[in-house]
Amino acid sequence: MTPLPETAPVLVLVAVQDMVNLASCIRVAKNFGITELRLVKPECSVDPYRLEGVAHNTADVIDRMTIHETLDDAFADLTYVVGLTGRERTAKRTMLRPRPAAAELVARSGGGRVGIMAGREDHGLQNEELDRCDALVTISGNPTYTSLNLAQAVGIFAYETWIARGGDDIPFKPPRHAAPPADHATMEAIFADWQTALIQIEFFKKREPELVMRGFREVIFRAGLDAREAGLFRAIGLEVGHFLRRKGVLPPLPPRRGTSGQAPGSDTETDRMIDP
Question: Going edge to edge, which strands form the sheet with 10-14?
């Protein structure tokens, strides 16, 4: 199940200075289910057309984006806000890493709207801005190079909020063409056809065919082929013989009795194996 939109935090960006960074924040926000952005005194262009030119297919988020003159206005309806900062603070503050901070945001979202604040690419958030936050979040990294690009920091934390909201519980898409496991009759046909193909190309030479095929069997069994995959693999083995016959290395196969003359293991038969 996709995380509920009402559990998503609001993203508040303060004094964003670069339009590409803003567009990148919009994109990663939508990637991870954050669809409401509030800009406080942006210092770059907020032209919707140019933003969507960088952040493709985000017109819905851009259309809802609002611009505010003060943090008070942007925070008015939020009940819990965390601020992203890369700097250590000497004052005693509630400091969290992204994962526990994301869990806290989700827990708090049950009682009201919550938010994430980030901003200002050159110097980050100011102390008086961080003072408005309930907690501060610092992303751990190389202690000799802690500064992150704004959009990167937003992306990392937005991902953590997505996971905390159950994003990883969304199942992978099923295969387009599901198939049952290959049966043993098909598997034995694969081994027979491939042994024939290896004989035709004189692979064994002084090798013991029984030992080689035993190892080959083990590899194929470990692969756990389904019926479609088994058909494809068998068709590959048969195609060795077809190729050698087309090149005149082997004589043509005799027609199958009681049919329209289609030889067993022919190109038409292998086509059916590949795309049953």
Answer: 66-68, 37-40, 10-14, 113-119, 78-84, 135-137, 95-96
Which is nearest to 41 in space by CA: 74, 10, 9, 79? 74
Q: Cα separation of 193 and 270, whole Å?
A: 12
Q: Are 16 and 46 in contact (CB under 8 A)?
A: no
pLDDT tens-digit profile of 186-228? 999 999 999 999 999 999 988 899 999 999 999 999 999 999 9
- Beta carbons within 8 Å of 223's beta carbon, 6+ residues apart: 229
First to last CA, the chain: 33
pLDDT of 24 over the 60 cut: yes
The residues, any chain, with a CB within 8 Å of residue 68's CB and separated by 6 or more, are: 38, 39, 40, 41, 74
Amino acid at 106: V
d(CA 119, CA 83): 9
Tell me what pLDDT residue 179 has: 85
User: Phi and psi for 137 in degrees, rounded to 5?
Assistant: -120, 125
pLDDT tens digits along 146-195: 888 999 999 999 999 999 999 888 888 877 777 899 999 999 999 999 99
Give a three-class secondary structure readout of 115-153: EEEEECCCCCCCHHHHCCCCEEECCCCCCCCCCCCHHHH
Burial 201-214 (b: 16+ CB within 10 A, else e): eeeeeeeeeeeebe
Per the structure block, which two tokens stand in for 144? Answer: 């000799």
| Domain range list for the chain | 5-169, 184-274
Architecture of domain 5-169: 3-Layer(aba) Sandwich (3.40)
